[in-house]
Amino acid sequence: MLCTVDKEGYIRVDGRLLAAFKILLKTAIFVSISFAAVSSRLFSVIRFESIIHEFDPWFNYRATKYLVTHSFYKFLNWFDDKTWYPLGRVTGGTLYPGLMVTSSVLYHLLHKFGLPIDVRNICVLLAPAFSSVTALATYLLTLEISDTVKGLRFKKTAAFFSALFMAIVPGYISRSVAGSYDNEAIAITLLMLTFYFWIKAVRHGSVFYASLTALSYFYMVSAWGGYVFITNMIPLHVFILVLMGRFSYKLYTSYCTWYVLGTVMSMQIPFVGFLPIRSNDHMASLGIFGLLQLVLVANYLKRVLTAEKFHRLMIASGFLVFTLGIAAIVVATKVGLIAPWTGRFYSLWDTSYAKIHIPIIASVSEHQPTPWASFFFDMNFLVWLFPVGVFLCFQDLSNESVFIIIYSVLASYFAGVMIRLMLTLSPVVCICAGLCLGRICGIYMDFRDEISAKAQKSASRVFSLVSKLLVSASVIFYLYYYVQHCTWVTSNAYSSPSVVLASKLPDGSNTIIDDFREAYYWLRMNTAEDSKVMAWWDYGYQIGGMANRTTFVDNNTWNNTHIATVGKAMSVGERESEVIMRRLGVDYVLIIFGGLIGYSGDDLNKFLWMIRIAHGIWPDEVDETKFFTRDGNYRVDDLASQTMKDSLMYKMSYYRLSEAFGGSDPVDRVRRQRLSRPYAESIHLDVLDEVFTSENWIVRIYKLKDPDNFGRDLVSIGEENLAGKSRRALRKLTRTKPDTQLNLL
Amino acid sequence: MQLLKAIFVLVASVALAEAKALTQKVFSPYALTNKTLVLYDVRIQDDFTSQYSQLLQAIRSSGSDVDVKRIEPDSAIALFDDYEQRLYDNLLVMPSKSRLLASNLDFKSLEEFSRKGGNMLLLTSGQGSQTDVSVFLNQLGIYPSPKAYRLVDYHNSNNWQLGVDKIENPVFLNPHIVPEGSQVSELAYENGSAALLAGNEFIIPVLRAKETSITYDVDRGFVGSQSTWHSGSDGFLMLAHQARNNARVFWAGSDTFLADSHFQKDLAHGIWRWVSRVNGVLKSDRFEHTKVDRDGLSLAVQDGYKVKDFCKFETAFSKWNGTAWVPYETTDAQLEFIMLDPYYRLNLTLDGTSNDSALYSTTFQIPDHHGMFTFKVDYSRPGLTFLKQYSVVPVRHLANDEYPRSWQITNSWVYVASFFSVVVAWLVFVFLFIVSGKKPLASAEKKKE
Hints:
The structure holds 2 protein chains of 2 kinds.
Chain A: E1 3-5, E2 11-13, H1 15-40, H2 43-47, H3 56-69, H4 72-76, H5 98-112, H6 119-148, H7 155-168, H8 170-173, H9 183-204, H10 207-223, H11 227-243, H12 249-266, H13 275-278, H14 283-304, H15 307-335, H16 343-349, H17 353-357, H18 359-362, H19 373-379, H20 382-396, H21 399-417, H22 422-444, H23 448-451, H24 458-492, E3 501-504, E4 510-513, H25 515-526, E5 532-534, H26 540-547, E6 550-551, H27 560-571, H28 574-584, E7 588-592, H29 603-617, H30 642-646, H31 648-654, E8 667-668, E9 673-674, H32 677-682, E10 688-693, E11 699-704, H33 714-723, H34 727-734
Helix pairs in contact in A: 1-6, 1-7, 3-5, 3-26, 5-6, 6-7, 6-9, 6-22, 7-22, 9-10, 9-12, 10-12, 11-14, 11-21, 12-14, 14-15, 20-21, 20-22, 21-22, 22-24, 25-26, 27-28, 27-29
Chain B: H1 2-23, E1 35-40, H2 48-51, H3 53-61, E2 65-70, E3 90-93, H4 107-115, E4 119-123, H5 131-140, E5 142-144, E6 149-153, E7 166-168, E8 186-188, E9 195-197, E10 203-208, E11 213-217, E12 228-231, E13 236-242, E14 248-252, H6 265-275, E15 282-292, E16 305-306, E17 310-320, E18 325-327, E19 334-339, E20 341-347, E21 349-353, E22 358-365, E23 371-379, E24 387-396, H7 413-448
Helix pairs in contact in B: 3-6, 4-5
Signal peptide (chain B): 1-19
Protein name (chain B): Dolichyl-diphosphooligosaccharide--protein glycosyltransferase subunit WBP1
Pfam families (chain B): OST48_MD, OST48_N
């Protein structure tokens, strides 16, 4: 019998049934967590459509399509002649192929099973699918941690809580909604998985788990540049454990296995190549590898030598190793064997570094420091559970909880420096909050004492019941509020594809602004297949992905000079710009102008970055201060500085704007400035022809005019035509002697 | 002796062929309508057809019908049909005093005509420089002296008060427009005007004004810096212009050298044939590049270029001799291999000739740099049709399996050897460890017992 009633009246349930019931319950919880994770990420698909979002995902999507239609080796050796014209991009060797390979494997697998799903849909839904795996990995990781935390009564509760938090935490959702087909979509999953295996390896000293760590580390390396975080986290963990005197053969085995296998495997990714032994970012892991060997030798000597001798030897050799190590790194860096720290690295320590030295990094909004409010926005009540969780780890200080402490300290710092690194903070916050809530539940949601027959005095019983009920109620309220908040944030902030914009009409009804796709589709259908489109780099991937046209610069900002050239072409006058554009081979120029409808992410607002980046290369030709008025204002109306008015970007933005306002003064709704009508009408373009302007004027496309048939200067033709001379004036003109100084031109 | 004879025969046959070409009815390969419109002002030439019969004959002999019309400001002249196609291949405008060329024509129509490939011979003179013609010429960068100015040369003219009426021993600057054989000892240039130039790379100087000549404003009556138009050799008496689309314009500051009274057949024929694109016309039908091996032999598989591949580039030039395409031989044609800047600028060597074209080629190694490279041939010589051809090819980097393998690099042998020795040492160690590990342990245990 599975179930019996014993003599005392208790129901005795068979252990097997209980186990089966447990499994069923666990599965049910996982299914619900996965469902919550996936469904909350589908807002964008339901609201808009199954579409790839933003910028980088468009490149990933394009690369995936290439991989699906070509062989893997073709993909690996892909030379992309449609970007960075005329330099081209060695795309196969400059991307992290993990994401594309994952979706292409899925694609082929599904097709094998007779499920002919479009590549686009796989790409769109990959991130939600992986988010449920992340929840599972977080569960496993937290379970490993909570096993070692002594105060916890229900280890699995903590783990389930962290899985639930992870499933819907907005900080992670922001990078993994449906359509956000970016490296981070699978990288966070792999991050959790790698950490899980690492903890497991450290706990058991198992070569098997260490190898699994290396394997998932390899997958992570193949998927995201953020793998460096792991490359430094694990050595730091080991280093601190060694400092704490926790050196053990378990640690030695797992680290050495991971380091050797992981490094060798990571070097198989073409983009990484020899970085693990040449770049400063990877030196810590190499150093710890060496250190562990020394510690091992020291351990041996300790057994062999007397205490006094060993002490002296340790001091001497420690000093020697330290100085030699530092000297070696300094010399190797100076000689060039080790690549010096990159600008991106410096900007992690000094937030104003990028602003001064590398405008191209600072120009990206997600590289800005994080405002405090966004911590609450992205984590909700986990923000204050997080320190408690860390405190719990401190109380216990097992090898595993040390890892969580290190992780939380590092991730908190980085999340404060760069808004995009909120992503790496989210998992540890979820884990700590899970531990904390698990503890709370263990204490306050356990009513067995209160309802059991062997109760104490009734007064204290009521008192403890009330306090427990109160705490449980508030926890449940917070949990409810958390779900509410996450849903609201996801639906309102993170589910916009940014390719399609949602807006409200004055009467309150919703409307869709689809200018981007309108324009890209126009390009696709109306321009020659080999035509080259110049646009600021933000739109490079989208033009490549949606319009299928050649671009000059794109979001893979590998060549600063080329970007600066485009920036210069945009910021100088027409005559100078024409020379640059002809040299580059420009056919069309595409700009984003939000002034009519009030779309603030337009090119004029990014214009200062173009100027700054161009200024970095040509300090004499592009001067930022000249684009401001004399009293230092960024004006675009009649009072704008002459350099501003002459710049190509300015002219392209406001060309014919007066016509949209039919008689009244045109107003720039983004910069809230009014241009006078006669001035707005006088803005003209000589070297470009307007060929397309989208419905809301967000995208404007211009065509570079052919050089004049008679060899005249396009700008001077424009100036002459503008004059609109009478016949009398013309006749007079033919009778005046020309300025033969022109001969010198 | 034999050789001399052969050369003589060759020269004679060439001369014969050229003579034949002059008399034979030639035509332009670009002729669309085979019609030429001649506009004249009855106030200057009262009997145009008889005064300029030889010129009209020259036009007819280059394969074009002539349509002579008077310049009348009130009547319309159609240059284009209803579909905006050219009705005429060539346009000849005589000096005119008229306010308008026709009621529907202005300088924009002339621009349009040229943009559509029409050629123009525009003549102005001291007697008449029509405004639209002048404006059009100004647009090209040619500034003829206006009506009141007179071309004088105090050193070479007998009658310096009346101005220059002929140019002695004129030196024509472009052999394609005025062939070497048609030099004249005296060029009639009555009522002439001289033009100044404003920088335009398409202008081809044909006849420069004498160093001693000036044009000055007769109304002002004196010569000073304010009243002169040109002075010395900065003025030009004949200029040509070939636009980007190869449409041609020829300007001369006087019409008398084309009149029957002073007609010089070779000169007039030469100029007209250049204008109407019978002479100085080149074409290139071939623009090919192939991947070859180190020795220049074409490879069977043409799968795009990679760095350091060898490439053979071929092109062919033909020249129009009036009736047919013949090979065009030159030594100064170049190929550029460009990515932003030219990586190579190579002379094209003559490989041989076929019936109608001369074949040029060059073989080179693609630089060790990947990117989008442009093959470009820009053969633009003053007086000849512009030959501009280009094509863009991607040059890819080496694929993962195209690098030399490690054992092929002698430098790497030491590393390969150390790798294998470590592997062997490790295996030996493991073997020894397994085989020899247990015994002492067992004996130690025994000892304890």
